[in-house]
Specification:
alpha/beta, 8 helices, about 260 residues, Rossmann fold
Length: about 260
């Protein structure tokens, strides 16, 4: 295998991606399908899952609220049955959480953000790690963090807290699972083009009393390359980390963000 061939994941890779009916997760799923991987996606949105399956019949799909441990257990069991094992877990599911001053954030909003963004990663790991050890010759784990996992993010404390925690989880697991040949990395997307980011910008603009366009311009001014990234940019990094070229990359928090300087 020459150097450039190593940049593509091995055909037949068995991949499980959470929160992957839309957005970044869907782009990652499509990218792996195009490399002849066997891909299982789950999402809390049943209609979005159905549409994902209709648009790509090769996908294996499931519906689950990732903050519910029993539902995650069922997804892992179903994925094992349909894929015959697991080579790569991509912990992608997450929500934006509330925007506001910390004293104005309601406890149930905080707890929902932590449960969806952080606890869910543990729920998948506790069941998937034994499966990776048992069934894969080259296992890997990718966790989706955020640029808010390396920078402070005022008015978005629940979200930022979970994304920083994910980086700590990844770095600790890389040490723990390295002797089992399991690579563990985090991807930290920056400002990603799309409807979800538009909602985040709108909420932040409202919280500090400026227009949407002003807030968007402020976001771009904080990026060295002065542009947002795309979901395809994130998917490309996931493919690289899963390829033979990434076989010695572990314990890393890799930003795909155009170099966001501050938030």
């Amino acid at each position: 295998m020459n150097t450039f061939e190593r940049l593509k994941p091995e055909p037949g890779l068995r991949v499980l991606i959470s929160g992957a009916a839309t957005g970044i997760g869907a782009a990652i799923a499509e990218a792996f399908v195009q490399t002849d991987a066997h891909v299982y996606v789950c999402d809390v949105n049943a209609s979005a899952v159905e549409k994902a399956k209709e648009s790509n019949p090769k996908l294996h799909v499931g519906v689950a609220d990732v903050s519910n441990r029993e539902q995650v257990d069922s997804v892992i069991d179903d994925a094992r049955s349909k894929l015959g094992g697991l080579d790569l877990l991509i912990n992608n599911a997450g929500i934006a959480g509330p925007t506001g001053e910390v004293e104005a954030i309601q406890p149930d909003e905080w707890e929902r953000t932590v449960s969806t963004n952080l606890n869910s990663q543990y729920y998948f790991l506790r069941k998937a790690v034994p499966l990776l050890k048992e069934t894969s010759p080259s296992p890997g784990i990718i966790a989706m963090s955020s640029v808010a996992g390396r920078l402070g993010y005022a008015f978005r404390t629940p979200y930022a807290s979970t994304k920083w925690a994910i980086v700590g989880l990844v770095k600790s697991l890389a040490i723990e699972l390295g002797p089992s040949n399991i690579r563990v990395n985090a991807i930290l997307p920056g400002v990603v083009q799309g409807e979800r980011m538009d909602k985040v910008i709108a909420a932040r603009a409202e919280s500090i009393g400026v227009s949407f366009d002003e807030m968007k311009a402020q976001y771009l001014d904080r990026i060295s390359l002065r542009r947002m990234v795309t979901v395809e940019d994130i998917a490309a990094m996931a493919l690289f980390l899963a390829s033979p070229a990434g076989r010695n990359i572990s314990g890393q928090a890799i930003s795909v963000d155009g170099n966001v300087e501050y938030l």
